[in-house]
Design brief:
Pathway: Lipid metabolism; fatty acid biosynthesis. Keywords: Fatty acid biosynthesis, Fatty acid metabolism, Lipid biosynthesis, Lipid metabolism, NAD, Oxidoreductase. One of its GO terms (biological process) is fatty acid biosynthetic process. This protein has 273 residues and is an alpha/beta fold. The chain has one domain: NAD(P)-binding Rossmann-like Domain (Rossmann fold, 3-Layer(aba) Sandwich), CATH 3.40.50. Helix content is 46%, strand content 15%. The chain is built from eleven helices and seven strands. Strands 3-2-1-4-5-6-7 form a seven-stranded parallel beta sheet, with helices on both faces. Helix 4 runs parallel beside helix 6. It is globular, with a radius of gyration of 18 Å. The structure holds 1,4-dihydronicotinamide adenine dinucleotide. 1,4-dihydronicotinamide adenine dinucleotide binds next to helix 1, strand 5 and helix 8. The site of 1,4-dihydronicotinamide adenine dinucleotide (NAI) has 27 residues, from helix 1, strand 5 and helix 8.
């Protein structure tokens, strides 16, 4: 279903790696809604070559950028406004990576060089992106910036490791930068806190299958899919949400307000019988 919600709007979409990526689904939905955009990812991720098919499908160009490099981000924003023919209306930050998780380091046994690297990629890159957009005055008034996060920023999920801390930092950046972007440029900044989703980043979390099944059984509406996250992002990019800013918005089927569900409880009842 398409409603032309983003007709005439221009933007940048970070983080589409393959067709499971939340950013991939978002690019497809934004395209369907009439938005135009530049796709970007880290040069190393682009070597896989899969992004080309998304670019073709959505009539967009790809500009490589390591989101931890201010120089790359400056080049990206300059080129994107040139290619798209004007200032931007939307930006999706869909980037996350923990080196400690990748290397199998437990939360109580971190390598702090890895911690710093993961924090830079997963959290500070959002500040860097916004600072470049802000300094270059590259956003149109009533534009919208969205980053993706997870509820481990608020509650304990032991295997989420240092990504929990990175997400807490990311959500704080959204509020802090959102204040300046709002008062000075009328641009809104929000984070979407998404259900566990089977993507490359998601499946990197230890015990992901249990994690996703538990969340699904706890949520009255079940887990939100990547496509449902894309749909929510489209509404935040549209003019229908102009006064929504500085928010962390849950797209999780209700999980974040649950104590226990009957389905989960039943498992323990069954065990005792
Ligand atoms: P994904 O693995 O498809 O996307 C992560 C992206 O980050 C990849 O495209 C990767 O190339 C990019 N990236 C890594 N380092 C980068 C760098 N230095 N510069 C630029 N890009 C870089 O996985 P997914 O799940 O689509 O992740 C998107 C966002 O959604 C992340 O912020 C993730 O934490 C968040 N999220 C994911 C959930 C899940 O269960 N999959 C749940 C809640 C939030």
């Amino acid at each position: 279903m398409s409603y032309n919600l983003l007709k005439g709007k221009r933007g940048i979409i970070f983080g589409a790696l393959d067709e499971n990526s939340i950013a991939w689904k978002t690019a497809e939905r934004v395209h369907e809604e009439g938005g135009t955009f530049v796709l970007t990812n880290a040069p190393i991720a682009l070597r896989m070559g899969t992004l080309k098919s998304l670019a073709e499908k959505t009539n967009s160009q790809i500009i490589p950028a390591d989101a931890t490099s201010v120089e790359d981000l400056e080049n990206l924003v300059e080129k994107a406004t040139e290619i798209l023919g004007g200032k931007l209306d939307f930006v999706l930050h869909s980037i996350g990576m923990s080196v400690n998780v990748r290397k199998g380091n437990h939360y109580t046994n971190m390598n702090y060089d890895f911690t710093t690297k993961g924090w830079d990629i997963s959290a500070v890159s959002f500040h860097k992106t916004m600072q470049v957009l802000y300094k270059k005055d590259a956003m149109n008034e009533w534009g919208s910036i969205v980053a993706l996060t997870y509820m481990a920023a608020q509650r304990v999920f032991p295997d989420y490791n240092d990504m929990a801390d990175n997400k807490a930092y990311l959500e704080s950046i959204a509020r802090s930068f959102g204040y300046f972007f709002g008062t000075e440029k009328k641009v809104r900044v929000n984070t979407i806190s998404q259900s566990p989703t089977p993507t490359t980043a998601g499946q990197g979390v230890k015990g992901f299958d249990g994690f996703i099944a538990y969340a699904d059984k706890m949520s009255p509406l079940g887990n939100a899919t990547a496509l449902e996250c894309a749909d929510y992002t489209v509404t935040l990019f549209s003019d229908l949400t102009k006064k929504v800013t500085l928010q962390n918005l849950y797209n999780d089927g209700g999980f974040s307000n649950m104590g226990v569900s009957q389905q989960v409880m039943q498992k323990f009842v069954d065990e005792q019988e």
